[in-house]
Amino acid sequence: MTILLLALRRLAASLPTLLVILAGLFLLLQLAPGDTVDALMAQMGGGDPATAEELRRYYGLDLPAAAQLARYLWRLVQLDLGQSAIYGKPVATVIAERLPVTLMLMGASLSLAFLGGIVLGVLAARRIGQWPDTLISTLGLMFYATPSFWFGLMGIVLFAIHLGWLPAGGIEEVGAGHTGLARILDIARHLVLPTLTLALVFLATYLRIMRASMLEVMSLDYVRTARAKGLGETGVIVHHALRNALLPMVTLVGLQAGTMLGGSVVVESVFALPGLGRLAYESVVQRDLNTLLGIVFVSALLVITVNFVVDLIYGRLDPRIAAGR
Amino acid sequence: MAALTRYLRNPAAVLGAVLLLLVLAVALAAPVLFPKDPLGLAGRPLQWPFANPKVWLGTDASGRDIAAQVFHGARVSLLIGLVATVIAIAIGIAVGAVAGFYGGIVDDALMRVTEAFQTLPNFLLLLVLVAVFGSDITTVTVAIGLVSWPAPARLTRAEFLSLRNREFVQACRVLGMGDARIIAREILPNALPPVIVYASVVMAVAILLESALAFLNLSDPNVASWGNLIGAGRGVLRTQWYVSAIPGLAILVTVLAVSLVGQGLNDAFNPRLRGPAPVKTAS
Description:
Chain B: Keywords: Cell membrane, Membrane, Peptide transport, Protein transport, Transmembrane, Transmembrane helix, Transport. Helices cover 79% and strands 0% of the residues of chain A. By secondary structure, chain A is mostly helical. In chain A, 37% of the residues are buried.
């Protein structure tokens, strides 16, 4: 239970952070040329200044900035993210429609990068200095240095255009009318390339950290003890070393949750996936700042949630954290 | 000197230095080899590489010389990477030094802001900045610097925390030195090496961030950036995939060079800590 309390305390500590983010973004958007009313008027095909004035009063845009900020924060507490100018729907609705694709993409990529990182990192650490280590480390460096969108494009060229194995974009076959299992398989097929694209960069980081962490743990006394009592190498790794070596990896997941969301903007654009990242891109291009702000808010919430879960996992992996403090 | 010897004995680090020098040479040679505007018309559009000796890497869909764009793109990438890194490191050092030196409420407040920046996906923040302030090359560079400072700030803070109560600092206090002088002249030189090494990570990320932004058509369209060229090649990806492939290789080589040099420096200056290079936190 202690770990839950600890994690909850960390969660409470992230509230001021969230407040800083929101206030900062709000002030930033005050600097942006044009406001919601300008966007609305443009959508209506222009209008007279009197109407604009009335609309500003209606939306509270004539109030001083501090009062507007207070109103804005109060609306956010009620999860009212305002109205999207280009979609003509509440921002919360638009985001809720797009969120599942991004969560699927992130979940799949994270799992792939995490598991792949563990396996490759352990392999490299076991064969340190020999060819498997050199090969894995080199591959890691290459993945690390490659822009993800370029990986995606080359993946499309190879697997979609030349080999024809996988679809080039979209989340499902439009008009194919798949239902049930067929639809799930179809979506999975569409997610293979995007998942690989997003995962490779993170796989590179994870395998590097896992390798280093494994090397460190394998040099500790308790591992020598485990060997001395006659355990095989696999037993030592699986039952003794792995759990401790995983701690830095779990920290990294929390640290990089935001980065992964940022990466999904690019990947979703490459593969035309109707996700949150694609929505962020569209709202930048179409100057829909209300939607953009909503996405940033939801992303921050998502990152805070991931870190909360990471704290919980941390406590399970290392009971000392729960017991000690 | 010992560090230099260690650096030169590390083949990966030497390879990185060679690649980096190569990119630098390409950037310097660009105005000499391709004096004309790289975004100007060079010939028939979509010529394959090595088909026409006049445009040996071929032309893109608008008939612009790919080789010229790749060469001039090296200038853009290196410049953006360098300037954005200087901005990020400068902010990071300032914030980290003050937070680590004074501690207490100042530290708490500054760390809240740092956490706020780290909680936001930095590419999303970059999109917001570009949406608000526009996307000419100066704005983009400053914006990349502005989203990249939290990690250097944390690193500087950690160094300052471990140094601020050392004896030499206490000696300075006894001598009556002012805080500003102790921070800048006494502690900072000791705290700097890991931050400088980390700068390579910041620079690699900055180059990748700009290319991603340019790929999405959200960076300055009036400069020959590698990301712009990859984005332009998307329309003809089905048949003329080389338009996107070539500048991507250029980015790969540059980022690889910067990372290898950074890791080499890290290993050379901390020979006992041959651990992992600091973690990259960007797309």
